[in-house]
Amino acid sequence: MSIPVDKFVNFEGSTIHYLICGAENPGNWVVLLHGKRFTAKDWKESGLLDQLEKENYKVIALELPGYGTTEKLQKEISFEEFIAEFLKQLALPAFHLIGPSFSGEIALKFALKYPELLLSLTLIDSINVDQYEEQLNKIAAKTLIVWGKEDPIAPYNYALMLKDKIPNSELLTFDHLGHTCYFDDMKSFSQKLLEFLR
Q1: Mutual angle of helices 102-113 and 79-89, in 10-degree steps
Q2: Helix or strand holding residue 151 (H, E)
Q3: What is the pTM (predicted TM-score) of this model?
Q4: Over the stretch 102-135, which tens digit does the pLDDT of each residue have?
Q5: Mean pLDDT to the nearest integer, 85-101
Q6: How many angstroms separate the CA atoms of 94 and 92, rounded?
Q7: Nearest by Cα to 123 from 168, 63, 77, 70
Q8: Exposed, middle or buried: residue 60 (CB in 10 Å: 0-12, 13-18, 19+)?
Q9: What is the DSSP string of 82-148?
């Protein structure tokens, strides 16, 4: 396995940090976002980057502006606009987007605003889902919903709402886990994710 490479790239005057690893001639790209308490390094330590690389994916674990070692932006744009513009700067083709917790909401907004850029969407214990209830049926990308049933931050009825409203979606529930279910049972999560991405 290749060791993920730390990259620091200038984006309109701000330094953006991400990890990149994976196949030289990838089948597809995967972009990993992170929760508020986590960084790109947590994805690396979870072992998911290695597993995605084995499956011939190229992976970017992106640290959002103001988090980890990524600087805040000098201009006022939303996180989803930043992701679109930054990945365009990197000349990324359409990709699989994975967003847990607060970046689940960002990924949701991204899917609504930039459907042409997504191969698939994975939402994990996303916050504020109820704010988008009327728009969820517009999400075109195939969607994997991952939830810990014991989540005290993003209630399980959000997962059921997403499953009900997003046309091409499936739900993976961890009955006895909470908000970080994907890290707490990485084996089950990664197995399901790899099946879904194929």
Answers
A1: 70
A2: none
A3: 0.95
A4: 999 999 999 999 999 999 999 999 999 999 999 9
A5: 95
A6: 7
A7: 168
A8: buried
A9: HHHHHHHHTT--SEEEEEETHHHHHHHHHHHH-GGGEEEEEEES-S-GGGGGGGGGG--SEEEEEEE
